[in-house]
Amino acid sequence: MAPYVVSLFSRKGAVGVSNWISRKGAVGVSSLISRRCGFFRSPISTLSVSDESLRSPSSLPSKISPWLMLPPTAAGGGCVVHKFYSIAENRVLSFAGEQKLGFPDGDTELVGSSHGWLALSNKRNNDLFLTNPLSRCRVNLPPIHKLPIEEQHLSREDFSCVHNVIISCSPNEENCRAMMIIKAGYALAFCCPGLSTAEWTPIGTRYVGQHDVRCYRSIIYSATHKLFFCLIDRRIFDTFEAWDLRDPDSPTMIPMDYPVIWLHSEEDDQRNKFCRTENSLVEYSGELFFVERFIAESVDSNGCAFDTHLCYISPKKGRDHSRPYKTMNFNVYKFDPESRSFRFMDSSLDGLVFFIGRNHAFAIAAASEYPELKADSIYYTDVTNTNYAIQEIDYGGHDIGIFSYKDRTFSPCYYPCDVKGIKVITPYPIWYTPTPL
Predict the structure, then answer these.
(1) What are the Cα distances from residue 415, in Å, to 188, 239, 318, 367, 380?
(2) Do 94 and 107 touch, CB atoms closer than 8 A?
(3) ω before 57 within 30° of 0 (cis)?
(4) Is residue 303 left, alpha or beta, with left meaning phi > 0 and alpha meaning psi from -120 to 50?
(5) DSSP structural state of residue 51
(6) Are residues 173 and 194 in contact, defined by beta-carbon separation less than 8 angstroms?
(7) Which of 82, 111, 262, 364 could be cross-linked to 133 through a Cys-Cys bond (beta carbons 3.0 to 4.6 Å apart)?
(8) How many C-beta atoms lie closer than 10 Å to residue 263's C-beta?
């Protein structure tokens, strides 16, 4: 990493959030929704927001607590009702949508959420667009057929060619940059949604040498550094790099060849046994974090992980998919400018709250203003790609919860996190921020 980037990794003031839902303009509380399980400490109510002045992000405060986007419901005339669970208010917010916006269904898949905008990809025709469920605005992104994607992937109607899309700010701004991870090969590309001549530009290196394959797995944008940070899977170890895209004609890559000082302990190894990892990056006020998430491929009725080789049926049928996957643990590493390495954080996240999943991962320091948010915790949603039709399974989208990094315990977040309560949730819930955090 360039020296000027390293020097910026210093802690700044904590970010607070304000409460919008309690404003007088919010209208009507309807009857209590039926609870799927009994873990709620208080009844969950539904708030229908019909005042048009409240639907515009410009009318919202500059900072607001994150929402969990729930599956939408159908309304008359082909329209939808977008639903969000507010952790701070412990209630569901409902916003009437429009048919033209598009929403996750059999053809369309949610592939990102950042700065109040959702990124959706149509698997049937490979259309890619951004939509804001509050303002009812839609921004079409450039077609992806010009990118180096094999035709066999573009022509598949059951396969989205897009893994993840994030934006640096509102797409209505001319300086907005969108970065995408292409699922076919996990390559990287970017575009400028605010320009009329916008098109996707491939960037990054997929191969180093003859056998070293680089797969981009996680991307975030730092408004402090004005850089995109990328996590790259190189099979044996993870590496990082940063991108300066302010000049779209001259994208600049900044190497980050700094090691992760891995945690090695017998207790941690036992906790992560039979797990795969889904790693991601998180940035807060200029600081960079590497999050290691451990997911058991199969768990028993008690939620304990076991060897997936024991689930093997036959060469034709492969593995038994009747048992669900489940997140079992997290380890977090913080970038240390002095040693120029990522150091393990032991039992504390410096009072921060992480929100990770298919969204643009972020962190806030909101525990003092929102007692409902648990400090030193990770609020997570499902990131596992699951094909329900082929595998004929009754789970997926369910891997949601709150992980206390201090005592390494799990608690539910709207949905049950115990194995017996697991059901298919589609489309996958995702973290949503009405205004940038």
Answers:
(1) 33, 34, 30, 22, 12
(2) no
(3) no
(4) left
(5) -
(6) yes
(7) 82
(8) 17
